[in-house]
Amino acid sequence: MAWTTSASRTVYENRWIHVREDEVTGPHGDGIYGVVRMQHPAVFVIALDAQERVCFVELERYTTGRSLEVPAGGSDGEDPLVAARRELLEETGVTASDWEHLGRMNALNGIADAPEHVFLARGLTMTDATASQHEEGIDAVRWVPFADALVLIAEGDITDGETIAALAYAGIRLGRFR
């Protein structure tokens, strides 16, 4: 049975998210469904240097606390590649000459309409981004060998779901999973 919506109302909205409450009929009958829609798709960047190290940012998240993540952010209506280049520079001070779109994914698809794009960035050049890192809430930039990043996931040091999924996309592309 397909889902049908009989009524919908906005309960909250800002420049990043739109929250609505839908009256629905689904496989198990009638009900209420809360949906968060991101106003623009997000981007996630696996920046890989010449030593095969992945770039991570450390920050404090209001909702979940300390987090180790790949550079990421909202596209703000830009083309996803343009947004990925901007986010990598703002959060890390890194630019890249080679970009590859690895795939598209959806965050929290049980409650959200939140499309995301994953990019692999290579041919890296380091610049200074201290001012923008502070503005972005970035406490540190860390470079971790790809294999060690997978260990950090297994040990529970990386818990951000989008970072884990983005690393899986990169691992598949790089032939790291056999």
From TrEMBL:
Superkingdom, taxonomy of origin: Bacteria
E.C. designation(s): 3.6.1.58
Gene Ontology molecular functions: hydrolase activity
Alphabetical list of SUPFAM superfamilies matching this protein: Nudix
Keyword field: Hydrolase
This protein's record includes keyword Hydrolase: yes
Top EC class for this record: hydrolase
Signal peptide feature range: none
Segments forming a coiled coil: none
Cofactors required: Mg(2+)
Pfam families in UniProt: NUDIX (PF00293)
Domain Nudix hydrolase: 38-166
The protein's name: 8-oxo-dGTP pyrophosphatase MutT (NUDIX family)
Protein species of origin: Microbacterium trichothecenolyticum (Aureobacterium trichothecenolyticum)
